[in-house]
Write a structure and sequence with these properties.
alpha/beta; 9 helices; globular
Amino acid sequence: MSNNNGLNGNGFEIVSGRANPERAKKIAKNLGKEPIFIDTKPWGNGYPRCVRPDDITFLHKKAIIITSLKYDGIGSPVEELELMADACGSASEIHIILTWFCTKDDVSHNPGHVPTITWIAHRLTRLNPKSVNFFDLHQSSHVEFFYPIRRRRFYFLRLLIEDARKTGIGQIAATDDGSTKRARKVEQFLRTGKPYIIAAKEHDHKSENSQVSFQQVYGEILADKICLFDDMALSLNTIKGAVSSLKEKGAKEVYAAAPHFDPTSGAYENLKELFDKGLLTRFTTTNSNAIEQKYLDFGPDKFKVLDVSIFVSDVIKSITHGESTSAYFD
């Protein structure tokens, strides 16, 4: 078996499917590679379908599969990943890079509610990859569901913190009580010197988009520029409520930032309302998911997208070289 794992050799291949092909191209380009796209477009009757380019072999190579397990119909993102892993079956090693893995539906809030994280983890571990790599999980402890597979977690949040520093953010706000740990961690890096604000909320978990049923701000506003840090933005109901409450408390400029943007029903309307009313100065996210043009049309002054490709490329370099990835953990 070949031991050629150098970046300029044939030791590994970048593999992707339908989810965010532009991001995969950028990552591959940073590594001096051409990405291999597995065709997973379903048959006309909706049945699963997978076609690997007939001139491609993964024999004696490491396959790095990059994808997003995003909301796109029940089971379909997981099935696509299973099909892609099967298509790379001749590889010496398979490493899965999940730039976005929504484990939002992870807690049993109501009788009869079945969380999805455990059965998805079971399906992925059965693929027997060499490693599974996550970015900004909803709960970092969820990596342990993938035992005994080698598992790593990283944080695109570091990119948002650096952007906040350049913007001149003077105070940090948490979007709920559970986000205070994130706010403390952001403060360690951003060092505003001011206590963070808690924009506490309660959700109606029986509603489809988990509508915010209660919102209250705790803490004193001490800076002109305040930034809400969340781990993901879906419906934007949480951010809408928090931003509105902060403005009512006298905040001059409110920013919001989330590593992942996977909009659900009502997200565009919520964001447009916040911008139109002058409540939200800017929303910042990353391209961990593909971003629809209608959001980009708000313009970078209002809707800013940070590119994750260099960060992911550096992680892949460490994986393919068998080096420690601990430098990318914080």
